[in-house]
């Protein structure tokens, strides 16, 4: 099993570096635009690393991760998980070096996108819209909007560079270059200037199948002319966000090219959104961790040999949304259920594998229904218990199942009342719950056989008493 302490230890050293300015606008962007997506802890982690840079310094002194734990007031496990969020969203690059003295990490802070880049980004803008809602999203976007100026009504009077400054004489230039001061014009190797370059874009590990896409559209257009580098990047991002397969994307691309020989990215984005509205409704997709983090996977790199191990592996490698699709036999997942998954991940900070166990527990125990109030209650309990792995969640799920057993076993009279449905669906329990219930039955049968017979005897005598009373009345 892979744990965070196999990759990061409190004694490991780290230093912070930045090659670009982090301005007040950048920090405002982090708080208002990035924090809803990565959470307050990750944003605080970024700010803490930034604070390690002293005034007018761009490289901090070395510290240990134990000091970072004290500054953030949290565990190394949380630091490791929050660091991955910053890396994934493009705010941090991590480099690792091993030597005789131990392991040293270099955390290179990346500036956030500008508001314009963020709101025009196909990935982040959609997820922020989903997270905040239409009204709040528009209010937030208005904070970064300037009124456009019609410059056609003005005449530009700006002076050009050569109208203000004069050039050095050729002889002066030559003499200066030959002098010792010419050394000031060059930079020593191994050094670089502080800059404010364009913000780094998001990187994706998944590979979109462009071969299938190109073969599908090759009958109508020339793929080599249409799919430029910029277009490929846009298609890859849109396919990730809206979960579009290559054949579906080929149809969308041809629609975007209907009246043009070149593929306009804005038109492609518009067609993708129209396709998504037809297929899935107007609610935009949500951002979520896809599967159980590797550091919390028990079956990572292992071959399951028992039913329990196969169940653990299934929960660890299946996204929660896919789990609900499987339980619905491939039917579309209701928007309310998608919101429940998002809340479990963002509000309760549960891992995807743990969410799968909770969803299955609720589905099997409540006739395939998901009650948000009950799910929030149990999720809050598991969050306080700091449940991170699937086996831990399965253990708590069994305890939750056993806690409800007395209410179900003593409800014999309740079951006989018409209109009451107190019985639990026993035919659709997961294998790990069924196995546990079978064990309970084998242990409890000898003890409960006598009370069961007594209850039957009491019910029989009561029936006989009613029959005798009826005869007496006759």
TrEMBL record:
Biased composition (Basic and acidic residues): 424-474
Residues covered by the DnaB/C C-terminal domain: 338-395
A Pfam family hit: DnaB_2
Chain segments carrying region Disordered: 399-474
Signal peptide residues on this chain, from the entry's feature table: none
Ranges where the Replicative helicase loading/DNA remodeling protein DnaB N-terminal winged helix domain occurs: 10-218
Family: Belongs to the DnaB/DnaD family.
Name of this chain's protein: DnaD domain protein
Source organism of this protein record: Halalkalibacter suaedae
């Amino acid at each position: 099993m892979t744990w965070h302490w196999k990759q990061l230890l409190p004694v490991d050293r780290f230093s912070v570096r930045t090659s670009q300015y982090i301005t007040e606008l950048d920090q405002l962007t982090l708080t208002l635009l990035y924090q809803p997506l990565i959470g307050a802890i990750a944003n605080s982690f970024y700010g803490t690393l930034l604070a390690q840079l002293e005034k007018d310094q761009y490289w901090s002194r070395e510290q240990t991760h134990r000091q970072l734990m004290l500054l953030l007031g949290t565990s190394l496990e949380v630091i490791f998980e929050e660091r991955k969020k910053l890396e994934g969203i493009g705010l941090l690059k991590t480099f690792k070096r091993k030597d005789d003295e131990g392991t040293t990490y270099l955390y290179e802070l990346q500036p956030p996108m500008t508001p314009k880049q963020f709101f025009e980004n196909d990935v982040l803008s959609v997820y922020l819209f989903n997270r905040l809602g239409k009204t709040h999203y528009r209010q937030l976007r208005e904070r970064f909007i300037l009124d456009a100026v019609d410059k056609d009504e003005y005449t530009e009077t700006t002076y050009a560079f050569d109208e203000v400054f004069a050039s050095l004489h050729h002889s002066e230039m030559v003499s200066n270059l030959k002098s010792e001061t010419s050394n000031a014009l060059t930079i020593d190797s191994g050094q670089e200037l502080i800059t404010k370059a364009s913000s780094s874009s998001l990187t994706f590990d998944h590979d979109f199948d462009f071969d299938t896409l190109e073969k599908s559209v090759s009958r109508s257009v020339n793929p080599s002319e249409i799919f430029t580098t910029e277009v490929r990047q846009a298609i890859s991002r849109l396919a990730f966000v809206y979960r579009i397969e290559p054949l579906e994307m080929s149809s969308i691309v041809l629609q975007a090219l209907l009246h043009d020989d070149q593929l306009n990215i804005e038109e492609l984005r518009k067609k993708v959104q129209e396709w998504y509205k037809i297929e899935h409704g107007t609610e935009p997709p949500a951002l979520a961790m896809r599967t159980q983090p590797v550091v919390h996977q028990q079956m990572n790199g292992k071959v399951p040999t028992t039913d329990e191990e196969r169940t653990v592996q299934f929960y660890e490698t299946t996204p929660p949304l896919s789990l609900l699709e499987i339980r619905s036999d491939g039917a579309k997942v209701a928007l309310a259920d998608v919101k429940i998954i998002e809340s479990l991940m963002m509000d309760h900070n549960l891992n995807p594998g743990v969410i799968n166990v909770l969803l299955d527990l609720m589905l099997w125990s409540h006739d395939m229904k998901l009650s948000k109030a009950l799910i929030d209650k149990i999720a809050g309990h598991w969050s306080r218990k700091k449940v991170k792995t699937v086996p831990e969640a399965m253990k708590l799920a069994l305890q939750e199942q056993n806690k409800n057993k007395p209410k179900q076993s003593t409800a014999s009279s309740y079951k006989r009342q018409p209109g009451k449905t107190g019985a639990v669906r026993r035919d659709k329990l997961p294998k790990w719950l069924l196995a546990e219930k079978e064990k309970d039955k084998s242990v409890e049968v000898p003890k409960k056989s006598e009370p069961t017979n007594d209850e039957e005897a009491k019910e029989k005598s009561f029936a006989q008493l009613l029959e005798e009373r009826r005869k007496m009345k006759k």
